Amino acid sequence: MDQTAASLNKSSTVTAEAVSLIDEIAKASQEQAESTAQINKGVEQISAVVQNNAATAEESAAASEELTAQSLTMQELLSRFQLRESEPATLSDSVHAEVLISPAQENIPTSIGGKY
């Protein structure tokens, strides 16, 4: 009988240890699942930021192309104008000097009765 009681006592102790280990494994698994969920949430946030940055980069590229086109148009338009050659102006002369531009002056409408 003593052997049976000792054997049952040992079996009970081993079972309690197994239950304790299983409980620890369950808790660790739960913590791991929570950590994985947090990592997934972080990856989703990073993905959203990357997508936003990609969209912003595309918009910037489109704006850059538009500015390049406008710059080329502006250069083409400005190439039609030529400054008349004149004597070098002093600072006081340049402040009050009239800008002489051709052929733009020919296209300036004259005032009739205060209206253009």
Task: Kindly describe this structure.
The chain is mainly α. It has a domain at 2-82. 72% of the residues lie in helices and 3% in strands. It contains 2 helices and 2 strands; from the N terminus they run H-E-H-E. The protein has helices at 2-78, 91-96; strands at 82-83, 101-102. A two-stranded antiparallel ribbon has the order 1-2. It is rod-shaped and about 125 Å long. The termini are far apart. The model has no long low-confidence stretch (mean pLDDT 83). One of its GO terms (molecular function) is transmembrane signaling receptor activity. It comes from bioreactor metagenome.
Portion in helices:
over 70%
The largest beta-sheet arranges its strands as 1-2
Q: What's the helix-strand series? A: HEHE
Distance between the termini: 124 Å
Major sheet details = 2 strands, antiparallel
Rg over C-alpha atoms, rounded to the nearest angstrom: 42 Å
Output mean pLDDT: 83
Strand content: under 5%
**What's the total count of β strands?**
2
List unreliable stretches of 5+ residues: none
By secondary-structure content and strand pairing, the structural class works out as mainly alpha
Shape, please? rod-shaped
Helix run count: 2
